[in-house]
Amino acid sequence: MPELPEVETTVRGLARYLHGERIARVSVNRADLRRAFPLELAQVLTGATVTALGRRAKYGLIHTDRDVTMVFHLGMSGRWRIEPERIDKHDHLVLETGSGHVLALNDARRFGSVDLVDTGALESWGPFRALGPEPLGEALTARHLARAFAGRAAPIKTLLLDQRIVAGLGNIYVCEALHRARIRPDKAAGRVSRAALERLVPAIRQVLAESIEAGGSTIRDYAQPSGELGYFASAWRVYGREGEACSCGGRVARFVQGGRSTFWCPKCQK
Ligand SMILES: [Zn+2]
Fold first, then answer.
1. Active-site residue, selected from the candidate residues 25, 251, 254, 260
2. Closest Cα to residue 22, out of 45, 49, 43, 44?
3. pLDDT digits (tens, 9 = 90+) for 27-80
4. Is 3 designated active site?
5. What's the CA-to-centroid distance between 262 and ligand 1, angstroms?
6. How much distance in Å is there from the Cα of 264 to the middle of ligand 1?
7. By the 8 A CB rule, do 217 and 13 touch?
8. How far does residue 76's CA lie from ligand 1's centre (Å)?
9. Residue 25 CB-density burial (10 A; 0-12 exposed, 13-18 middle, 19+ buried)
10. Are the CB atoms for 208 and 137 separated by under 8 Å?
11. Distance between CA 34 and CA 52 in Å, rounded?
12. Over the stretch 116-161, which tens digit does the pLDDT of each residue have?
């Protein structure tokens, strides 16, 4: 499932082909993904110039000179194919730029979405309204986390996955960040020390940044039909490594928390 780093990598990859480009042709090849494509999608985007690309949580943003932003979500299996050799049946939306680049939004399971939102009203758009700060932005601080966690008995890992507290963090990244910050995933959030939170914020940024960098180096793979991007599994220190040695000499353990696997090291995470 595409996580924040995959979305960021996707947006950077798309920017190479779309930034400053006029969208010459738009083909909408079916009526819906998770929900219907906006009826006016092709009409609004055709002839528009892409002024910037961005990301909010796990949503990609394609801003245009029509004060409208195309917001996409990759769902479970979505990805953009760049210059595909031929359009396949899962290429549900195809953009062709004035200089002839072809970009296809491919989504076999169709859990993704595409919306048109007034650029000026993005922050108040339904799915964005309640989102917490971006993990890579300046608004995520130990102070913000301390306030959000104050008095909370829920495990810190569960609250880090709450999009209202931090936007866009997924299971893998939370496991890895807690390990780097040496915090037990099941510790009551309200009891995590300020010093630990001061370690956690840079740990979150580091884990995400490393993943984005790993994905960024494989941008060309977007053209490959099988391309799984951004996951850099060999770099995980605990995720998927149950029973393996931790660098502290301990052993990576796993338990199920909120229906999801948590990987951690009982020796160095307190
Ligand atoms: Zn350890």
1. 260
2. 49
3. 999 999 999 999 999 999 999 999 999 999 999 999 999 999 999 999 988 889
4. yes
5. 14
6. 8
7. no
8. 31
9. middle
10. no
11. 25
12. 999 999 999 999 999 999 999 999 999 999 999 999 999 999 999 9
